[in-house]
């Protein structure tokens, strides 16, 4: 039981939030490329400009944060935040006034 509690603080969620320019054709191309590369790195769309990724440890989260930093476009505002699974589990999500369940990360396999 204590092991599960520790995992809730060790397992991380990486959130990438961005607001990129889309005025020109080149801007739209950079936006699409950045979004595609985030998806290829295992992120899922949470909202239009917010993507999330479940990571099994702080170290693994740091690897994915560094990958995002390497593909940052030259213009726009990008925020990267890392929160624990425990914190993410407390999120309240609504579609209109109806509350919905938060995304669940993959199940961790244990080998003995």
Automatic annotation (TrEMBL):
EC numbers, comma separated: 3.1.-.-
Top-rank taxon: Bacteria
Keywords: Antiviral defense, Endonuclease, Hydrolase, Magnesium, Metal-binding, Nuclease
GO molecular function, one term: hydrolase activity
Annotated Mg(2+) binding sites: 19
Enzyme kind, highest EC tier: hydrolase
UniProt xrefs under Gene3D superfamilies: 3.30.70.240
Cofactor(s) it depends on: Mg(2+)
Family note: Belongs to the CRISPR-associated endoribonuclease Cas2 protein family.
HAMAP family listed in its UniProt record: Cas2
Subunit composition and interactions: Homodimer, forms a heterotetramer with a Cas1 homodimer.
Described purpose of this protein according to its UniProt entry: CRISPR (clustered regularly interspaced short palindromic repeat), is an adaptive immune system that provides protection against mobile genetic elements (viruses, transposable elements and conjugative plasmids). CRISPR clusters contain sequences complementary to antecedent mobile elements and target invading nucleic acids. CRISPR clusters are transcribed and processed into CRISPR RNA (crRNA). Functions as a ssRNA-specific endoribonuclease. Involved in the integration of spacer DNA into the CRISPR cassette.
Entries under NCBIfam families matching the protein: cas2
Protein name stated in the entry: CRISPR-associated endoribonuclease Cas2
Organism, scientific name: Mycovorax composti
């Amino acid at each position: 039981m204590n092991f599960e509690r520790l995992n809730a603080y060790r397992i991380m969620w990486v959130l990438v939030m961005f607001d990129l320019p889309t005025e020109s054709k080149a801007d739209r191309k950079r936006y699409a490329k950045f979004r595609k590369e985030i998806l290829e790195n295992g992120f899922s769309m949470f909202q239009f400009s917010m993507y999330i990724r479940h990571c099994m440890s702080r170290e693994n989260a740091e690897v994915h944060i560094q990958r995002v930093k390497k593909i940052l476009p030259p213009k726009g505002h990008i925020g990267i935040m890392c929160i624990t699974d425990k914190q993410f589990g407390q999120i309240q999500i609504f579609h209109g006034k109806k509350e919905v369940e938060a995304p669940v990360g993959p199940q961790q396999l244990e080998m003995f």
